[in-house]
Amino acid sequence: MGPLLTKMIFASALLPMLIHVTAFCAQACDVVAVRSFNSSPYNNAIKGFEASSKCSVSVIDSDAGRSAVLREIRDKDPDAVLVVGQDALNAVQSITGIPVFFTMVVVSELQVSGLPQNFYGLSMESNPESHAKTLSDLFPKGSTVGVLYDPKHLKDFVVGVKGHLDGRGIKTALKEVLNAASAASAMESLKDRIDVLWLPADTTIANEENIKAALLFSMRNRIPIYTFSRKYVEKGAFAALQTAPYDLGLQLGEAAAKTINGKTLPKRLEYPVRHTLLVNRKMAKKYGIDTSMTRRTAFVE
After folding, report:
1. How far apart are CA 129 and CA 134, in angstroms?
2. pTM, full prediction
3. Domains along the chain?
4. What are the 10-residue block averages of pLDDT along the chain, 301 residues in total?
């Protein structure tokens, strides 16, 4: 047997072993994903996380009850926990000792600071600069953006957006809303002062009743609505700057892989780096808004 043939036989024998080792390394971490319930958006976020983290992910639902969720996490002894949705986050807030990564939760920096130090979140909102750029691309200088927000949740975020909009020649009319019942009257107080109404991802503002009131406000006053979710664009809002659940999972999985491997610790709350402007084509035509200056735009009919 010649040396070349010997090397070929050795290589062919080694190849399955290398494939096995590579697969093992790619699945060397174990993560428990806790989701609020079984839904396509939550499942897509988990798929994105699994794809980028290269971890083996097992899924449990928070509706099993807090005690059952915590017991299963203890039994599985994972390297990290992924949390998707508010109910899921509520169920795991006593976990310490391992990193907990959460997303698809409406949460502020102040609220994150109240969580244990091992919790790291990815916001559903894009960063203030991205919102300011998008709004300045859609509306001419001198326009006024009305913003409803609860200062308990989004004060720093809204102030950040205002600063970026000021720098781009766009004015703002900020309206604090301290409870959900006062949102409709807050909108009415802005109607003669604004060119667009922005409803950010704030649990005080963005409930179904207030979204319905905002859409009626928009129709009566011919003021477009800018928001954060595709489902509201489908219902008649003009546009939303949104990150797809799969992309939220991808970004969080990248951060988790670095943390589990001991390379870096993420910030307590990060903003998405991938986002798409979703535009209701009918509303854009109705309000005569030119969307050609925006990048990564998708139209909703």
Report:
1. 9
2. 0.84
3. 9-123+245-270 (3.40.50.2300), 128-242+276-300 (3.40.50.2300)
4. 48 42 55 97 98 97 95 97 96 96 85 90 93 96 97 92 97 97 97 97 91 97 96 96 96 95 88 95 95 89 83
